[in-house]
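[job 4417] fold queue: 2 targets
>>> target A
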Amino acid sequence: MTRIPRIPPFIGTTRSRSPAGFHAAVFGAPHGTPYPGIDNRIHATAPDAFRRALGEDGEWLDHWDFDIGGPLLADGTCRIADLGNLPTKSKDGKGNRKLIEAQTRKILAAGAVPLIFGGDDSIPIPFIAGFSGSSPLTILQIDAHIDWRDERYGEKFGFSSTMRRASEQAHVWRIVQVGARGLGSAREAEVRHAKQWGAHIFTSRHVHHNGLKDILDTIPPDSDCLITLDCDALDTSEMPAVAHPSPGGLTYMQVVDLIAGVAAKARIAGFTMVEFAPKKDRDGASAYTAARIAANIIGHIARQI
């Protein structure tokens, strides 16, 4: 059972305890699978930070959104629930994974598109697992790190293993990764394993020099695409509020243009947004930027129903 937040629901959504009767549903997962000695609580208040960031914007849903090319919810027939935050616990990785997967399955069973706000980047592992038994998925990971570690500190379900675990799930048939730069969480063996599996890896440098066409060409038309966004994919100038910032990242406009390009040829089947560190967001600008990306996702979902 989820806790309904005492703050505005995320923009365009309605507070609800159930996804039944909705086209999409947002929920928060403050904690994922912890590593020994690494504090995963730095991301715990991120879901509510995103809700607060667009609290006032929710009063203007009938206004033109120039990112989307019309009102956020199109003709207004799309109904999106905000299910609140799951009662995750900082050190209970197994329990947290169970909660996240169960909530994802519940939303899908209701015929809705699930959207999750983390939390750290281990959260997409059970979220993606919740899609098993559904149509084959293309995973689009937008991230500064490729996350192909088999284990770290003896833990196989932590935030360095997200795409490795995704690659082992039978319903995941394509992985496209965008934004890697610097020390992208991988040793030579992880890069080799990712490429041997068939992952399409596009660095941040590739995006800056070549644009998005090559990336969008790897997204199959009319496919189901699950988009997972790690906030550190964005450049530090636009997104300093992350655990591991590095220079040379993507811009807000590159990210929303990539999402728009995917939405133009495929169906957005799910979305995760992770690795936001609210205590590093001194003026609220980073939360607003991240929340606006999620709002773009909602705008495109409203146009695919």
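>>> target B
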Amino acid sequence: MIGTVNDGWRAAVTMLGHERVSIGTSMAPRSDPLAFGSLLESARRAGNSTDPAVRAKLTELYVRQQELRLLTVRMRQEAFAGKPIGARGSVAKLVGAVVANHSADVAGSVAGPDAVGWLPDDQAAAELTTGIVGAPGIGIAGGTNEIQRNIIGERVLGLPKEPQVDRDVPFRDLKVGTQRTN
């Protein structure tokens, strides 16, 4: 048992908070196949690095990844200074997930056919595709993007909670989905 009896929800929420901060503030290394530098190199290999549409997508990606990097730096500085991150970790987690999905979209545009099929010895194309396929999972880990938006609205922005008519009903008694009413 961790903590006290019947205090598991608080422990779970604390763990999820740490997970969200970790997911949101873990900056991708330059060797990450979805990092700007890697995708610029992929565009050069594919021969489309001078295409204005590709350059615009890469530019937007660079800006978004820099925004995430700066948010990460700020949150780490605050954590080292002893300021609790709290629900603001959901901001970092949401931004990280959005940037990851955007990176995957750009990667698909940049890589072209290499994002679908590649030669067995083309390790760069295999890693790129693994990054593309894995990116949506970041929007689920630590709580979905929708959950993060609710947390941000309620705990960061102070907006009212959504109505919950079933708040005090045990899960086993909920009448939703395919449950039968007998």
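[job 4417] complete. Note on B: The chain has one domain: 8-173.
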